[in-house]
Design brief:
Layout (H helix, E strand, L loop, with lengths): L6 E3 L4 E3 L3 H6 L10 H13 L6 H22 L5 H40 L2 E5 L6 E5 L3 E2 L3 H13 L3 H4 L10 H15 L3 E2 L9 H16 L3 E5 L6 E5 L1
Parallel strand pairs: 5-7
Antiparallel strand pairs: 1-2, 3-4, 6-8, 7-8
Helix pairs in contact: 3-4, 4-8, 7-8
């Protein structure tokens, strides 16, 4: 269950909640044509019909509702002179574009975590022929004293620490791919010898690069090409070669 499956119906818009912000950005829908009260009421009715509360869905809904509320509040403020009005409109458009991009990135992370989360908990079997007979030994992914929740917490600290100027950098100015970042991280870890601190992989990175870096770490862990180690309950996280 995701935001895409939550449909809303208003006088001006009917469709997936997931596409609402995009409709506003493309000027297919005015912000004042959106009733947050009706949307919220519909959302609660939607939840009542669900047997289990999907926290991912709830967080996505709250994020988008907060963005809509912010945009709406800016529109009802007193308008200054024409020049400042144009600046205000440009600012709102930039804010909306930024929120849409952040939402897209968080959505990608949430989907990856849904996929990887179950995978990290699985136990795999490998075979040895030490005594001429095949025997099974249970092994796990290379996580040492660190759970996926701790990894996500570390990622959130990195995300929150990104300066606003880099956070607003336009997506089209960036050129970074997942395979490229996987190769770069692998090379960095090998050159470090004893491993590299989790936070060091994100230094001077934009938010898009931060997201791609985190997904690269998850992919490398899935392939069992790295070890993710934490020094104690509150220690730092280190990425090492497997």
């Amino acid at each position: 269950m995701t935001v895409e499956t939550f449909k809303i119906e208003t006088e001006k818009y009917t469709g997936p909640f997931d596409l609402l912000l995009a409709a506003i950005k493309d000027e297919k829908l005015e912000i004042f044509d959106v009733s947050l009260a009706k949307i919220t009421s519909s959302y609660f009715e939607y939840l009542k019909k669900s047997e289990v509360l999907d926290l991912s869905l709830a967080s996505e809904f709250l994020l988008m509702a907060a963005v809509l509320l912010e945009l709406k509040s800016k529109e009802v403020l007193p308008k200054p002179q024409e020049k400042l009005l144009q600046e205000e409109e440009n600012e709102i458009e930039q804010d909306l574009a930024k929120h849409l991009e952040e939402y897209r990135m968080f959505k990608q992370i949430a989907e990856e975590l849904r996929t990887r989360g179950a995978t990290f908990k699985k136990i795999f079997s490998r075979y040895h022929r030490d005594d001429g007979r095949r025997k099974t030994e249970k092994v796990e992914y290379e996580f040492k004293n660190v759970g996926l929740d701790k990894l996500v917490e570390a990622f959130k600290r990195v995300w929150d620490s990104i300066p606003q100027q880099r956070a607003l950098q336009h997506i089209e100015d960036e050129d970074v791919t997942l395979p490229q970042r996987i190769e770069e991280i692998t090379d960095m870890i090998k050159r470090s010898g004893c491993g590299i601190e989790f936070e060091q992989l994100f230094i001077r990175r934009t938010r898009l690069e931060v997201v791609v870096t985190f997904l690269a770490i998850l992919e490398l862990a899935k392939r069992r090409e790295i070890k993710i180690v934490q020094g104690g309950n509150f220690g730092g996280i280190t990425i090492k070669c497997a």
